[in-house]
Design a protein that fits this description.
Helix content is 44%, strand content 17%. The protein has helices spanning 2-20, 54-70, 86-98, 115-123, 147-162, 181-194, 211-225, 238-250, 266-273, 285-300, 304-310, 339-343, 350-353, 359-364; strands at residues 42-47, 76-81, 103-106, 128-131, 141-145, 170-175, 199-205, 230-235, 280-282, 313-317, 320-328, 331-333. The strands form three sheets. A seven-stranded mixed β-sheet has the order 2-1-3-4-5-11-10, sandwiched between helices. Strands 7-6-8 form a three-stranded parallel β-sheet, with helices on both faces. It has a two-stranded antiparallel sheet with strand order 9-12. Helix 1 (2-20) crosses helix 10 (285-300), helix 2 packs across helix 10 (285-300) and helix 7 packs across helix 8 (238-250). The longest helix has 19 residues, at 2-20. The protein is globular, with a radius of gyration of 21 Å. The chain binds beta-D-galactopyranose (GAL). Beta-D-galactopyranose (GAL) binds at residues 49, 52, 54, 132-133, 176, 180, 182, 209, 237, 263.
């Protein structure tokens, strides 16, 4: 895992730095003008929730290790998870400001509600880098995936899965939390593919991205639309996809209609193998986390050439224009590319996926 993660980061950094003609900076050396700090730095990391396994399994440990490796083991990460509670995240942010961390990586529970905290950090001279979700307020940089593309990839896959039934097929949309700006982008991307091609009969925004809320909404949709009339479900992520599939099965579905997802979580990959979930969206968390760590360290150390090379995209938030950003691509994850994605990048081994329950299904798709 770590080796792959490092390799990905190294390749991104060397391409961009080579383009600028400065190569020697990555280890905390002397590549650019008047560094502000040395290696003895503290990065504050604020992540939004635990429902989705990505945060504790990938984001936090990868960022922690990359910060260490970029600072000759002298730098450290202090991590707080908000459990989907915006008030708690504001308190965690306040605490990090009080503790005088050197830089913040912030994945907001609620992009708007955290803005005053971002302003406080700014006033205290602490740079804030928005991680994965674009927080409002005066942030210094942003790193994420191309979130509109995520929705497009999901929408396209659903159309493909509906095959002949697109056009007449009734589709239910299970979108993410309204407090997460990514959710709006996933939805917009998906709608750009689905509108006019399928019949969207129900659309829900899911409070806090919680599977239990998605399940209750799906049960309501089944009651009102009728189980047999539902041709497919757009689910914005894997956690909700699992809940949607449970609701469909509990209502008596013998064959589950196509359901989308996102995040390549292990149970979703297993459902894909078993033919219960049509697809997920594969996002390279190692790439996002490693680049974020590099951004944070280069920002604190005042290595502006490296920082600029990492933030060549420009993104607007409702409160700020032209935020220096890095947006990364994503791919659809289906039965035919499990090896080239989650296995090759060290997310899971074949053994992790093909447990006793899934052995036969793995054999059918040639996963061994
Ligand atoms: C999004 C994030 C996804 C997923 C989702 C639900 O903001 O980009 O990867 O984690 O939140 O938690």
């Amino acid at each position: 895992m770590r080796r792959t993660a490092m390799a990905l980061a190294a390749s991104t950094a060397s391409v961009s730095l080579a383009a600028c003609g400065v190569i020697d900076g990555v280890g905390g050396g002397s590549s650019s003008a008047s560094p502000k700090k040395g290696d003895d730095i503290t990065v504050g990391l604020l992540l939004p929730e635990k429902e989705n396994p990505r945060y504790d399994k990938f984001d936090y440990p990868i960022i922690r290790d990359q910060v260490r490796s970029l600072t000759h083991d002298k730098g450290r990460v202090v991590y707080a998870n908000a459990d989907a509670d915006k008030t708690k995240q504001n308190e965690q942010l306040d605490q990090m400001i009080a503790d005088k961390v050197d830089v913040l990586l912030l994945d907001a529970v609620d992009a708007k509600a955290i803005a005053p905290g971002v302003q406080k950090a700014k006033d205290a001279g602490i740079p804030v880098i928005a991680y994965d979700r674009l927080a409002q307020g005066p942030i210094d940089a942003y790193i994420s995936f191309d979130n509109e593309l995520v929705g497009q990839v999901q929408g396209r896959a659903l159309i493909e899965a509906l095959d002949g039934k697109a056009g007449t097929g009734k589709v239910v949309m299970m979108n993410g939390s309204v407090t997460d700006p990514n959710a709006a982008q996933f939805k917009a991307g998906a709608l750009s593919e689905l509108q006019g091609k399928v019949n969207i009969v129900k659309s829900y925004d899911t409070k806090d991205w919680k599977p239990e809320n998605a399940k209750a909404n799906m049960e309501q949709a089944i009651r009102s639309v009728g189980l047999s009339a539902i041709a497919g479900v757009y689910s914005a992520n894997d956690g909700m996809a699992g809940a949607v599939i449970d609701a469909l099965k509990e209502a008596g579905a013998s064959k589950v209609p196509p359901v989308t997802g996102q995040d390549a979580s292990l149970d979703a990959v297993q459902r894909i193998v078993a033919g219960e979930q049509y697809m997920s969206v594969y996002k390279s968390y190692p790439q996002e986390a490693n680049n974020a760590a590099e951004m944070a360290v280069s920002k604190v150390q005042g290595r502006s050439i490296e920082f600029d090379a990492l933030t060549r995209d420009k993104v607007d938030s409702p409160t700020q224009k032209k935020i220096p950003s890095m947006l990364m691509p994503v791919v659809a994850l289906k039965t035919d590319n499990i090896k080239e994605t989650v296995i090759q990048d060290g997310f899971y081994t074949v053994e992790d996926i093909c447990t006793a329950k899934y052995k036969a299904a793995c054999a059918v798709i040639g996963l061994k």
